[in-house]
Structure to design on (343 residues):
């Protein structure tokens, strides 16, 4: 029996400190995540310096827990992988430095992973399937992107956000409605009791064949709806009933989902894709999952969606993608540095 290839993955690109051990790119042996939501909620967003300090505190306990859960030692590890881009530079530095140190001390190969690209691999964790070539939608707090994927390593960007990402719009609208941070889960929970047709918020499709995204307009539309055109009126949110807030949340969510689904199907048709992959933090949104599934069924396109536990940032997806890079001998030097931006 062939020995599995076992990779340790580390992740600290934003506000989750994570370590995971994955075999053969999909068999998750451990996946440990330390969230920082409580640290950042009073600011309504992630503060890079606070995130970096928390990563320093959490990394070693998370790493030890990952090995305990997997019941493995460093001798079982074939490579060390880390997300080095994109992300918050002060946060990225923590996991990148740790990964380089472990690779050097343990004499293991070092693998650099693009955090956004790894969200594609999260779709296949615990359920290896043949879905390539595919059209992929990655939708999160910082990124909304469409890729044409020949395989896990050959990705062509087709479209991306030109301003606010979808997840960022969720956070900002949650702030407008005085809902808790993070905005995605709060908006979805509030929207469950609302009428998605109560308010016709704008759907920005850009040019006729465009595959890019823009969500700043809908955020502004919600703001004007609550505080008057050009914010000249009184903030009505404090006096709103729960039902009014729910209708706004549901109508906003419906507009965002509508754009995401239409653009994804448009892209799939442009590249004649027979399958679609959906990953990223916003991929946990039930309305989006259901709507995209319905449209894919109508178009006879197979849909692969990441399990909800792998939608948010985690290290299992880092180790998963690293498996394919290791097989292709795409290794990183010990001089690896974090990069705030990534394709």
């Amino acid at each position: 029996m062939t020995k599995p290839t076992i990779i340790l993955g580390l992740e600290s690109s934003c506000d989750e400190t994570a370590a995971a051990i994955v075999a053969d790119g999909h068999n998750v042996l451990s996946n440990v995540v330390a969230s920082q939501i409580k640290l950042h909620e009073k600011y309504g967003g992630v503060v890079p310096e606070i995130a970096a300090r928390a990563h320093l505190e959490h990394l070693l306990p998370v790493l030890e827990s990952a090995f305990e859960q997997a019941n493995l030692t460093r001798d079982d590890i074939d490579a060390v992988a880390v997300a080095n881009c994109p992300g918050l530079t002060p946060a990225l530095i923590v996991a990148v430095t740790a990964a380089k140190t472990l690779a050097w001390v343990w004499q293991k190969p070092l693998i650099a992973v693009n955090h956004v690209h790894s969200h594609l691999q999260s779709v296949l964790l615990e359920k290896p399937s043949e879905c390539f070539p595919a059209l992929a939608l990655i939708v999160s707090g910082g990124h909304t992107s469409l890729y044409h994927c020949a395989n896990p390593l050959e990705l062509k960007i087709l479209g991306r956000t030109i301003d606010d990402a979808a997840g960022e719009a969720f956070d900002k609208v949650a702030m407008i409605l005085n809902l808790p941070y993070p905005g995605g889960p709060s908006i979805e929970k509030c929207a469950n009791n609302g009428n998605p047709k109560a308010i016709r918020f704008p759907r920005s499709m850009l040019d006729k064949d465009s595959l890019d995204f823009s969500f700043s307009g809908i955020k502004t539309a919600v703001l004007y709806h609550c505080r008057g055109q050009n914010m000249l009126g009184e903030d009505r949110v404090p006096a709103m009933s729960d039902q009014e807030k729910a209708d706004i949340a549901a109508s906003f969510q419906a507009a965002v989902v509508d754009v995401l689904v239409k653009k994804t199907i448009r892209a799939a048709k442009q590249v004649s894709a027979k399958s679609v992959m959906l990953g990223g933090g916003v991929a946990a949104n039930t309305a989006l999952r259901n709507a995209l599934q319905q449209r894919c069924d109508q178009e006879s396109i197979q849909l692969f969606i990441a399990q909800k536990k792998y939608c948010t940032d985690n290290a299992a997806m880092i180790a998963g993608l690293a498996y394919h890079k290791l097989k292709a001998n795409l290794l990183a030097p010990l001089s690896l540095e974090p990069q705030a931006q990534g394709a």
The mean pLDDT is 94. Strands lie at 6-11, 16-23, 27-35, 79-85, 110-114, 134-139, 144-151, 154-160, 275-279, 302-305. The longest helix spans residues 242-270. The longest strand covers residues 27-35.
